[in-house]
Amino acid sequence: MKYQIELNDEDYLRFNIFYATHSKVGQHNVKMARLAFPLVCVLAVVIFMMAGAATTFIIAEGVVLAAASVCWQFYLPKMMEKSVKKNIDRIKTDGKMPYHAHSEIELLDFTIVERSSHGQIHVKYEDIEKVYDTEAYLFIFYSAAEALLIPVRCLGGQKERVVAFLTDKTACVCKG
């Protein structure tokens, strides 16, 4: 099975966000970011209580900080996306494309071959750590931070066939 892969900045952005929310380090960082702001808010309320502030002020502060903590939970994913976009733009400004815009991926019996203008990459199926099957992409991780990114749109309606093939070869396909 051979497929022509066309990637763009949006694909690379989606991959990085997926990686940030599914890797162990990324999940840890997201948890810490989600907890840090509410903990600072609780600490602020405790400090005002210890300082003997008026009860109505402490209650008002608690309500405002609780609302801010809830808003933070919704804002954090947007902030992460903005940060990843900035990093991509910075890398592109330096003249380095962080991905191969045009490549060919071939699924052979014992290996996956990615061919691009930068050369070939051979990935043995036993070296694949995890395959994530999402609605729009297949992410084939073959190391902690390296993956083959295959947009479903490039599979020509053969996503189920490719997923079945990868499941047979790797037994590590999971829904993303």
Textual characterization of the structure:
This protein has 176 residues and is an alpha+beta fold. It has two domains: 2-7 and 100-175, PH-domain like (Roll); 10-93, no CATH class. The chain is 52% helix and 23% strand. The chain is built from four helices and eight strands. The protein has a four-stranded antiparallel sheet, with no helix packed on it. A four-stranded mixed sheet has the order 7-6-5-8. The longest helix is centred in the middle third of the chain and has 39 residues, at 55-93. The chain crosses the membrane at residues 32-51, 57-76. InterPro entries: YcxB-like_C.
Question: Would you kindly provide a brief summary of this structure?
Answer:
The protein has 176 residues and is α+β, with helices and mostly antiparallel strands.
Secondary-structure content class: alpha+beta
Oligomer: single chain
Give the integer mean of the pLDDT values: 89
Percent helix range: 40-55%
β-sheet strand percentage: 15-25%
Q: In angstroms, what is the radius of gyration? A: 22 Å
* Envelope shape: elongated
Please give the number of β-strands: 8
Unreliable sequence segments: none
Spatial arrangement of strands, main beta sheet = 1-2-3-4
Largest sheet data:
4 strands, antiparallel
Domain YcxB-like C-terminal: 108-166
InterPro entries: YcxB-like_C (IPR025588)
Protein name: YcxB-like C-terminal domain-containing protein
Pfam family, one: YcxB
